[in-house]
């Protein structure tokens, strides 16, 4: 069976993915979530012409160097001066306070000298200085946050300024995660002589959370179809089911057999990539199913390439991921027909990003994956590349 190119596989996976429902969340809980609707300002900011400095509000025409003006009142943030500034007058003003009627500039206090009720101008004022016009930041009705935006701290601050205490966001897709294999025990347990610790479960649980999903840990099932099926049923309500391990062709690789028995429609299996070739993609009723290869590096690379975009699509997340490139720090050999994701470490040299592929690339080696900060993407049949060649990167951090 021909292996499916990565781009085709991704397109097939994402075509027809529907976003999750909308929920309203208070700002503190909305942080990090994806906005479901456009958000318009409910007010104008600043709502009045405001001083940008501490000093005196006055008429520029009165304020030549040496002029003496009478201080007739005070305007501070939270309480304005109700009168107006007449000829030869000034109002003491503080940052953020409404600029009183009649004044057309703010003279900073460093350029004045105060003598009782009189302020002496030491440096001439210029009309319009240090005044923030009403609506400088935004006006009521302006749409400043668009649906699909990930709510970073800047967006949360803006939403608050626009006087939204709660925001409509997409529900986080629930991702059920099941590790399979007789050899696996949970971290902290005592493995038998032929056993290892399950790293994929905890790793992918963390991955799902970081990608914006809600992980549902189904634990570890042994290599037994009935046990795997029972565990899968415990995750029936999840939007996405991720099976880890047993995706390949061995006698004890039971993921696909179990899923088929349960009625999964297989969309595709086996991708032209390394690591991660045996990825299974299908649907079980309403649930999107991903069967990840068990090798820990393969599982994480497949999650980065397929699970993350799937979660993002369900969230309606439109934030861009700009392409990243770097110069090879060492030469690389020609590639075969699979798209290669090569674990590597980047450095900055003379302001330029340089990437060093690791010499060992075994898909079982988590130590090297954790030491990597990027994957070099080597397209199928890429020619040998010399040191200094510009190559595409997928940053891992
Ligand atoms: N004859 C062939 N054999 C294999 C092929 C192939 O095309 N023909 N593909 C290889 C590739 S590529 C991969 S990747 C693996 C994928 O195998 P499975 O998805 O069936 O995974 P397992 O056999 O269950 O496990 C592989 C490996 O990973 C360890 N593992 C599994 N789950 C976990 C976990 N939760 N935490 C940590 N480690 C885990 C498992 O013990 C194995 O060592 O197949 C190749 N074989
Ligand atoms: O694709 Mo497997 O993931 O090469 O080890």
Provide a descriptive summary of the structure in words.
This protein has helices at residues 6-14, 27-30, 153-161, 200-211, 225-234, 255-261, 296-315, 366-371; strands at residues 22-26, 39-40, 50-51, 55-58, 68-75, 89-93, 105-108, 112-115, 118-121, 131-132, 143-145, 166-170, 174-180, 184-185, 196-197, 214-221, 240-244, 265-269, 273-274, 280-284, 287-292, 324-328, 339-349, 352-357, 374-378, 390-395. The strands form 7 sheets. The chain has a 6-stranded mixed beta sheet, with no helix packed on it. Strands 16-13-17-21-20-18 form a 6-stranded mixed beta sheet, sandwiched between helices. The protein has a 5-stranded mixed beta barrel with strand order 22-24-23-25-26. 38% of the residues are buried. Helix content is 19%, strand content 31%. The chain has 8 helices and 26 strands. The chain has 4 domains: 6-19 and 172-315, MoaB/Mog-like domain (Molybdenum Cofactor Biosythetic Enzyme, Chain A, 3-Layer(aba) Sandwich); 23-44 and 139-170, Molybdopterin biosynthesis moea protein, domain 2, CATH 3.90.105; 50-132, Molybdopterin biosynthesis moeA protein, domain 3; 324-395, Beta-clip. The longest helix has 20 residues, at 296-315. Helix 4 (200-211) runs parallel beside helix 7 and helix 5 packs across helix 6. With 397 residues, it is of the alpha/beta class. Bound molecules: ligand LQZAQKY5 and molybdate ion.
């Amino acid at each position: 069976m021909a292996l499916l190119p990565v781009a085709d596989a991704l397109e097939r996976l994402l075509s027809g993915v529907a976003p999750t429902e909308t929920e309203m969340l208070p700002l503190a809980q909305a942080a990090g979530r994806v906005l479901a609707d456009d958000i318009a300002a409910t007010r104008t900011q600043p709502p009045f012409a405001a001083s940008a400095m501490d000093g005196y509000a006055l008429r520029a025409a009165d304020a030549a160097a040496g002029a003496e003006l009478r201080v007739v009142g005070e305007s501070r943030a939270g309480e304005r001066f109700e009168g107006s500034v007449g000829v030869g007058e000034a109002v003491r003003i503080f940052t953020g306070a409404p600029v009183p009627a009649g004044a057309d500039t703010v003279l900073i206090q460093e350029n004045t000298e105060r003598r009782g009720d009189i302020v002496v101008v030491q440096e001439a004022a210029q009309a319009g200085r240090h005044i923030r016009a009403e609506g400088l930041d935004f006006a009521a009705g302006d749409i400043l946050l668009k649906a699909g935006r990930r709510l970073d701290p800047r967006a949360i601050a803006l939403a608050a300024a626009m006087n939204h205490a709660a925001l409509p966001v997409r529900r986080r897709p629930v991702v059920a995660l099941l590790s399979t294999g007789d050899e696996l025990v949970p971290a902290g347990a005592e493995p038998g002589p032929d056993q290892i610790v399950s790293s994929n479960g905890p790793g992918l649980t963390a991955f799902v959370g970081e990608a914006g999903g809600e992980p549902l840990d189904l634990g570890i099932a042994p290599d037994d179809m009935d046990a795997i099926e029972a565990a899968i049923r415990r995750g029936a309500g999840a939007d996405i089911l991720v099976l880890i391990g047993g995706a390949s062709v061995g006698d004890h690789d039971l993921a696909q057999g179990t899923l088929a028995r349960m009625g999964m429609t297989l969309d595709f299996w086996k991708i032209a990539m390394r690591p991660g070739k045996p990825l299974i993609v299908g649907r079980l009723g309403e649930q999107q199913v991903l069967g990840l290869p068990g090798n820990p590096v393969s599982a994480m690379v497949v999650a980065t390439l397929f699970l993350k975009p799937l979660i993002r699509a369900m969230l309606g997340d439109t934030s861009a991921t700009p392409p990243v490139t770097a110069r090879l720090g060492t030469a690389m050999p020609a590639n075969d027909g699979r798209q290669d994701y090569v674990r590597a470490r980047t450095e900055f040299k003379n302001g330029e990003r340089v990437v060093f592929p690791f010499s060992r690339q075994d898909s079982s080696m988590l130590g090297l994956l954790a030491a990597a900060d990027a994957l070099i993407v080597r397209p199928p049949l890429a020619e040998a590349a010399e040191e200094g060649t510009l190559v595409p990167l997928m940053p891992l951090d």
